[in-house]
Amino acid sequence: MKTYEIMFIVKTQEESLVKKSIANMKSILENASAKIVEVKDMGQRKLAYPINNETNGYYYVLKVEAKAETIKEFDRRAAIDETIIRHLIIRLDEE
Fold it and tell me: What is the CATH number of the domain that holds 29?
């Protein structure tokens, strides 16, 4: 298993819906036996530029140990989830 850092921005909406979106993203990883090492809730921030008419979003960063197939599935699901404005996945080098 390799280590990845995943950042995603959740569309500004009711707090319960934001939490549901985050839980949904985490469950994709956990159901595929990935290990979530660290979770950073960076809170609501103003976007550098509007994305789909959104100017604010909730930023989250996950550090994950997972297989490549799991990350591909996360990437696919995040791309089609309407509550996720943007996401970025970076593979961290082994130290």
Answer: 3.30.70.60
Kindly report the CA angle at 89 between 83 and 95, in degrees rounded to 5?
A: 150
Report pLDDT for 6: 95
35 beta partners? 65
What's the confidence (pLDDT) of residue 90? 95
Query: How much is the average pLDDT of 71-80?
Result: 93
Count of structural domains, the chain: 1
DSSP string across 28-77? HHHHTT-EEEEEEEEEEEEEEEEETTEEEEEEEEEEEEE-HHHHHHHHHH
Partners of 72 in beta bridges: none
